[in-house]
Design brief:
transit peptide, 39% helix, protochlorophyllide reductase activity, binds Protochlorophyllide, 413 residues, eight-stranded mixed beta sheet, binds NADPH dihydro-nicotinamide-adenine-dinucleotide phosphate
């Protein structure tokens, strides 16, 4: 059981890796103090929180009972967990799992909100709702009936790389580490836009937000996920059927197509090149579908680069057609009126927000959905299955290129 204590350290202060202590030694040191001073104990600047102290006293009990040497081991690191993921009660030897920490982007409506609700209802998660509109998110959580103790709203605007970096800093300072699951869910869809609009750094807004913002976020938070000792740590990027041209829905024009990515290479700026990934004329609906292809390719590239080394599960999914969400807010009123019954009665692809939230919550927490590099879908009986991606959305050469171009654009290379 690796108890890591230095999340409690200011980042400027780090303890050399060689400095290792057994929990037993720390306990002895703490026990030598009066209970009052124990309450405020600090060790090399580390203040011991209540649960660590509880760990210590059970360690003492166990030490006395079994006379084992070095039951627990603490390695002081510059960044670490405060509570081990799996805890066991000395009395009956039963294991318990601590609450997981999950960040969900765009949890202020639709799928993200429904997922936060589904996870909150299990009581097993501390949910960080990473949202651009703080008040909207608070109100949404309240009206969805998510109890206060299960969530925290933190500001994140994916259309600004500064905001993404600020979010990561804030998360790290919040003392909520480690991160166990990251869900990249937020998105914008601008089907009626005649001209492109741009992120703070000048990228076309749909690909800039849905893909590049999430790309930077997940690359930065990968380190946090690596440090998690949770039994199944996951990075989930929401994809869609409409980015997959091996389906009927994916063949509705305009179709996703990244082409040779000359527009992405040019920075999607629309000034010295095209605002579209493939370098073509601006089309808002296509830009969204292209962004979903980038999302699904990014998930697979993460899997290829990091799954074996880190044990992190990388996954994507199509949650079903949630035709009632805010995603369609920019569409014409007639579309918003007809789309839900069309999906309900004609394609039968419709799912409620509640059902979609349960699906994504499964990808977050189901022990049976730990396979990495997978794109999940659900059949008519709402059973999950591993779905096939289109040729383009599973092209490993394109995935590598999206990765390399994206890391240049977000300043990682
Ligand atoms: P919603 O519009 O209801 O939710 C999108 C969320 O993203 C909102 O919370 C929105 O915030 C947030 N968001 C938008 N821009 C930003 C930004 N710049 N920074 C931070 N957050 C932002 O849509 P859905 O719930 O339908 O979409 C969720 C995911 O599901 C998307 O990835 C979408 O591609 C995917 N999906 C949806 C399908 C559907 O049928 N609806 C089908 C397949 C996939 P705010 O509330 O402030 O606007
Ligand atoms: Mg689609 C099985 C058929 C199916 C499914 C599951 C979807 C899902 N759609 C299907 C079929 C069709 N759609 C057909 C036959 C048409 C032509 C009438 C059609 C049209 C259509 C439009 C105009 N569909 C749409 C739009 C949108 O603007 C939505 C979109 O593409 O957003 C990017 C959309 C969607 N259809 C879906 C899903 C899930 C969407 C939402 C897109 C997404 O989030 O990826």
């Amino acid at each position: 059981m690796a108890l890591q204590a230095a999340a409690l350290l200011p980042s400027a202060f780090s303890i050399p890796r060689e400095l290792e202590f057994t929990l037993w030694e720390i306990c002895c040191w703490l026990q030598g103090k009066s209970s009052a001073s124990l309450k405020d104990s600090t060790f090399l600047g580390i203040s011991f929180s209540d649960h660590v102290r509880t760990e210590c006293s059970s360690a003492l009990r166990i030490k006395k009972e079994s006379n084992q040497r070095k039951l627990f081991h603490v390695r002081a690191q510059s960044v670490a967990t405060t509570t081990p993921a799996i805890n066991w009660a000395a009395s009956d030897g039963k294991k318990t799992l601590r609450k997981g920490t999950v960040v969900i982007t765009g949890a202020s409506s639709g799928l993200g909100l429904a997922t936060a609700k589904a996870l909150a209802e299990t009581g097993k998660w501390d949910i960080i709702m990473a949202c651009r509109d703080f008040l909207k998110a608070e109100r949404a959580a309240k009206s969805a009936g998510i109890a206060k103790e299960h969530y925290t709203v933190m500001h994140l605007d994916l259309s600004s790389l500064d905001s993404v970096r600020q979010f990561v800093d804030n998360f790290r300072r919040s003392g909520r580490r480690p991160l166990d699951v990251l869900v990249c869910n937020a998105a914008v869809y601008l089907p009626t836009a005649k001209e492109p609009t741009f992120t703070a750094e000048g990228f076309e807004l749909s690909v800039g937000t849905n893909h590049l913002g999430h790309f930077l976020l997940s690359r930065l938070l990968l380190d946090d996920l690596k440090q998690s000792d949770y039994p199944s740590k996951r990075l989930i990027i929401v994809g869609s059927i409409t980015g997959n041209t091996n389906t009927l829905a994916g063949n509705v024009p305009p179709k996703a197509n990244l082409g040779d990515m000359r527009g992405l290479a040019g920075g999607l700026s629309g000034l010295n090149g095209s605002a579209m990934v493939d370098g073509g004329e601006f089309d808002g609906a296509k830009a969204y579908k292209d962004s979903k292809v980038c999302n699904m390719l990014t998930m697979q590239e993460f899997h290829r680069r990091y799954h074996e080394e880190t044990g992190i599960t990388f996954a994507s999914l199509y949650p079903g057609c949630i035709a009632t969400t805010g995603l369609f807010r920019e569409h014409i009123p007639l579309f918003r009126l007809l789309f839900p019954p069309f999906q309900k009665y004609i394609t039968k692809g419709f799912v409620s927000e509640e059902e979609s939230g349960k699906r994504l919550a499964q990808v977050v927490s189901e022990p049976s959905l730990t396979k990495s590099g997978v794109y999940w879908s659900w059949n008519k009986d709402s059973a999950s299955f591993q779905n096939q991606l289109s040729q383009e959305a599973s092209d490993s050469e394109k995935a590598r290129k999206v990765w390399e171009l994206s890391e240049k654009l977000v300043g990682l290379a």
